[in-house]
Amino acid sequence: MHHAFADKYSGIDSFIHGLDPRSKIAGLFAFVLFVVFTPPSSYISFLCFLALLSLLILFSKIPVVQLLRRLFIVIPFVLMAAIFIPFFKEGRVMGSFSAGPVSLHVTYDGLLILWGVFIKSSLCTLAMALLFMSTNFTSLLKAFEKLHVPPIFVMMISFMYRYIFVIEDEFMKLRIAKESRTFGGSAWFHTKAYASMLGVMFLRSYERGENVYLAMCARGFDGSIKTLSHLHFHVVDYIFIAATLAALTLIRSLT
Fold first, then answer.
1. How far apart are CA 54 and CA 127, in angstroms?
2. Which of 33, 105, 133, 239 has the most crowded CB, counting CB atoms within 10 A?
């Protein structure tokens, strides 16, 4: 079946793709920190952050539609978690809604917090999507390892990314088998069938994990990621980090 790999566009020949993954990670963390600590009322700052991010996306040559698709996957969950803030945050009331005995008040402070959550999560998600889509996943893991991220975390991310597609294939096979053997029936019947499928999926995943672990031990796996190419910082990487920090500092100082 078709899978949407995170590094599908990592083979594009562009300025962003040619950077060392460690420099892109450093730029991402700097961007996220500046965005997170910007007050929600600094509208000009967020507009400048968006302009800077748009410039990097332009240099990456990654289709904007694909980046927005990643954004639209995350934003609904963020809004679901923050949509009630304007109704419960105390402050200057902007409007009221009544439904029988229930009366809700929308406050200016609550809307400001909701705006901050929305714009910050959107900018950070786009930045993270740009990082993952412009970097080969193996190189990204190697960069995390070089940045002294605990090896157990790197391995967990590696295995999760590698085997989530295998588990998805297994689930689709079980679903097709279930659909071919069941027709009609009540909703409770199908619920029990899916519950049984989850149990089978757990057992298969556990057995596969044991087999993979034994196979890796037999091949002398020592917990480090082996790659044919090595990461090297170049002058352009230092320039990219310095330019990114300078632009972020300028945005915050001017606004």
1. 10
2. 133
Residue 46 makes CB contacts below 8 A (sequence gap 6+) with 35, 38, 119, 123
Tokens of 127: 């930045």
Nearest to 212 by CA among 167, 153, 253: 167
Residues 6+ apart with CB under 8 A from 24: 16, 131, 134, 135, 240
Structure tokens at 164: 């989530």
Highest mean pLDDT among 2-11, 134-143, 159-168, 179-188: 134-143
User: Does the reported pTM lie above 0.85?
Assistant: no
Q: Which two tokens stand for residue 44?
A: 């000009």
Given a cut of 60, is residue 3 above it in pLDDT? no
Residue 115 and residue 221: Cα distance in Å, rounded?
48
Model pLDDT, residue 238: 92
Give dist(CA 30, CA 57) in Å, integer.
17
